[in-house]
Design goal:
Blueprint (H helix, E strand, L loop, with lengths): L1 H12 L6 H4 L2 E11 L5 H16 L5 E6 L6 E7 L5 H18 L3 E8 L2 E6 L12 E5 L8 H21 L5 E7 L7 E8 L5 H18 L6 E5 L2 E6 L10 E4 L17 H39 L2 H4 L17 H7 L8 E5 L2 E7 L5 E7 L6 H12 L10 E7 L2 E7 L7 H4 L10 H21 L3 E3 L8 E3 L5 E3 L6 E3 L6 E2 L2 E5 L5 H6 L1 E2 L1 H17 L15 H11 L15 H14 L10 H9 L22 E6 L17 E4 L11
Parallel strand pairs: 7-11
Antiparallel strand pairs: 1-4, 2-3, 3-5, 4-5, 6-9, 7-8, 8-10, 9-10, 12-13, 13-14, 14-16, 15-16, 17-20, 18-19, 21-23, 22-24, 24-25
Helix pairs in contact: 5-6, 12-14, 12-17, 14-16
Length: 673
């Protein structure tokens, strides 16, 4: 008997028990990074330290993010477990991810690992401040819906939309599961799941998921199940239960409205058929007349609409540039209704390009509409530039473009509405600047720095803004800064570090010396602008109008004099109360490093972000800044022809006359590039 039990136990040891790898398969891995690292290097040590920190910090909510080290060995990472996993399963999944990451992507400085129940991403770039969800994997079911696929798709869309709202506004973990019941005998229940990383705001989570739902409609029509996994958000739906826990959202499929059934011709006797024929003829004649009228009207409307959109061809809005922009196309009638036909009472600002109006879409969403002046020949070039660039970017510190319109000679860009308008309306207003305490100013400084870092280093595109200033920093209801106005921005290739232009465009008081004198611009030009902006935020003084004070010739000289005299805390805006002097000194130090004359002496924005977030990181001593363009008046834009023989400048007009235009609104006045 005992011998038999022993044999049974031995057999049991060799039976294939289910493991984590069986129930939690590896879906895919994406390896990358600009370069590799080696064993026993600082980067390798930082990765191990980061993994240990993420494993410890993710036990409570299944999510953690962090950064270890400093440039060039800085490593950032995040982990996320599916919301229906317990802490034990989550830990096991992440442990597997940590082990496999270095095996699947050996010595790569960046990797993203997707499992069924968790994901891991690490990189040598600072991506944590970004809401970018462009890295995605799709997983459709191999089976098609056999009965009423259109209604099935609509029910899935409604289910996921309801779950998205719950996850965004009712769940601190940004997670929701749901069921749609009573669809059919074949599919009695449809199951859905949505999730975002918990560090996203409600609106960011909702926006991220809506972006995935658009792709669902594109790839999963009439499919029984599918999923799209991104680093920041994901969804999944199936016709079988694939999650654990009670649904937070329930949908009765019978409540979905179906289209009316087509009318069938009645059958009956020959007399009824004759009567039916007579009635049909009597109905057909006026119907034909109505149809002919409608066709004539439609043809005229099409001709008018086609002629109004010839501007698309005239100005070379080619399909490659405008990829993805068609989904943002809005009707002029919609925007006229939203702004009450561009009523003066809705005007937010006025500039040489035209005006900006507040509007409200039919769904209740507030918008800001930039209406280019019809007499401005430069407006369309700026609209194209801004639309192409900003529509491809997604970051909480960049203003979002919601749509565009080119009809009846109108050139319109539609942005998210930012209720607190621009930073300069607070910073340089004697009455309102007191609302900006040091905590708010510090938040604005850090947000702008992260937004610039995203443009320069973390986005799929490398973009030079070229016109960063207080009036181009918009503030939302929470005073979160959003960089706006990309009309003067330039796109760099991956390996490009500098470019040259024959025509300098920008704003007095913010331009770097190499740009103003020689037309050379790079990411370091934006760093210079950030340094000026940082000093303005600290002092509450406008650099371009500093000539009015008797303290110094310009803001840079004023800051340097206090730096050398050891009186940096005196630079702080007098309206600031209980302002930590050590933080003021450190911010001024960082600002002076950003405005160094030699671009190579200026830090990258990723380094600036680290400097701002660390009080222990040592900073090198700055040199005296010696260059500043000022203007005897309020903030003005500069358009200056530069004569030089450095490189091949971009295609520009040969107009030798400079052009200076007043600009006091939150969106820059622009000229052709």
């Amino acid at each position: 008997m005992y011998f038999s039990l022993l044999i049974i136990l031995c057999l049991l040891l060799y039976l294939p028990f289910p493991s984590l790898s069986d129930s939690n398969p590896l879906l895919t891995q994406v390896c990358g990074g600009a370069s590799n690292y080696s064993d026993n290097s600082t980067y390798s040590s930082n990765i191990n330290q980061l993994f240990s920190s993420l494993a410890t910090n993710s036990t409570s909510i299944g999510f953690a993010s962090g950064t270890v080290g400093s440039v060039p060995n800085l490593v950032s990472g995040l982990v996320l477990c599916r919301g229906d996993t317990n802490s034990s399963f989550c830990s096991s999944c992440l442990s597997t991810a940590f082990q496999n990451a270095v095996q699947l992507c050996p010595y790569d400085r960046a990797a993203t690992i997707f499992y069924d129940y968790c994901l891991l991403k690490f990189s040598n770039e600072q991506f944590l401040s970004s809401t970018d969800n462009s890295l995605q994997i799709r997983g459709p079911s191999p089976a098609n819906v056999t009965s009423d696929p259109a209604r099935f798709d609509q029910i899935v869309t409604d289910l996921l939309s309801n779950a998205s709202a719950w996850a965004s506004y009712n769940s601190t973990r940004r997670f929701a599961i749901g069921e749609a019941t009573n669809f059919s005998q074949q599919y009695p229940v449809i199951y859905g799941l949505v999730q975002c990383t918990p560090d996203l705001t409600s609106s960011e989570c909702q926006s991220c998921l809506q972006g995935l739902f658009v792709r669902k409609q594109q790839y999963f029509k009439g499919i029984e199940g599918g999923r799209i996994l991104g680093v920041r958000c994901n969804f999944r739906y199936e016709v079988y239960s694939f999650y654990s826990g009670q649904p937070t959202v329930k949908l009765d499929a019978t409540a979905v409205t179906l289209p009316p059934a087509p009318m069938l011709e009645p059958t009956g006797s020959s007399g009824k058929k004759s009567r039916t024929t007579i009635i049909s003829i009597a109905v057909a004649i006026p119907a034909f007349i109505v149809c002919l009228s409608l066709m004539t009207f439609s043809f005229c409307f099409w001709r008018k609409r086609r002629s109004s959109r010839k501007v698309l061809v005239k100005y070379n809005f080619d399909s490659d540039d405008m990829e993805g922009a068609d989904s943002l196309l809005l009707d002029l009638s919609t925007l006229k209704t939203a702004t009450t036909n561009f009523n003066e009472s809705n005007k937010l600002g006025q500039g040489g390009f035209g005006a900006v109006y507040k509007g409200t879409l039919p769904n209740g969403q507030d918008i800001a509409v930039k209406r280019m002046s019809q007499s401005s020949g430069q407006g369309l070039g700026e609209l194209k530039n801004e639309l192409i660039l900003v529509a491809k970017l997604q970051h909480k510190n960049l203003v979002r473009v919601l749509g565009w319109c080119l009809e009846e000679q109108e050139k319109l860009l539609v942005y998210e509405f930012v209720p607190n308008r621009s930073l300069d309306t607070f910073l340089f207003n004697p009455e309102k600047k007191a609302e900006l305490n040091w905590r708010k100013r510090s938040t604005i400084i850090n947000g702008v720095a992260r937004g610039l870092q995203y443009l320069h280093e973390d986005s799929q595109l490398r973009i030079i803004h070229r016109d960063l200033k207080a009036s181009n920093i918009l503030l939302d209801a929470d005073m979160t800064p959003k960089i706006s106005d990309f009309g003067l921005a330039r796109l760099f290739s991956v390996d490009q570090t500098v470019d040259v232009t024959k025509r300098v465009v920008g704003t007095f008081g913010y331009m770097a010396p190499e740009y103003a004198m020689h037309g050379l611009y790079s990411t370091k030009s934006d760093v210079f602008c950030f340094g000026i902006l940082l000093l303005e935020i600290i002092t509450g003084k406008r650099n371009s109008g500093f000539w009015e004070s008797n303290e110094a010739e310009d803001l840079l000289s004023f800051a340097w004099e206090n730096w050398t005299a050891g009186t940096v805390p005196q630079l702080a805006d007098p309206t600031l109360k209980h302002c930590p002097s050590n933080e003021i000194v450190r911010c001024v130090h960082i600002a002076l490093l950003c405005v160094q004359d030699n671009p190579t002496d200026r830090p990258k924005m990723s380094e600036v972000v680290i400097m701002l977030s660390s009080n222990t990181m040592s900073l090198k001593a700055p040199f005296r800044p010696s260059f500043c363009i000022t203007n005897t008046g309020s903030e003005s834009n500069l358009y200056l022809q530069v004569n030089h023989n450095q490189g091949s400048g971009s295609s520009q007009p040969s107009d030798m006359s400079g052009h200076v235009s007043q600009n006091q609104v939150s969106i820059t006045e622009l000229d052709a590039r």
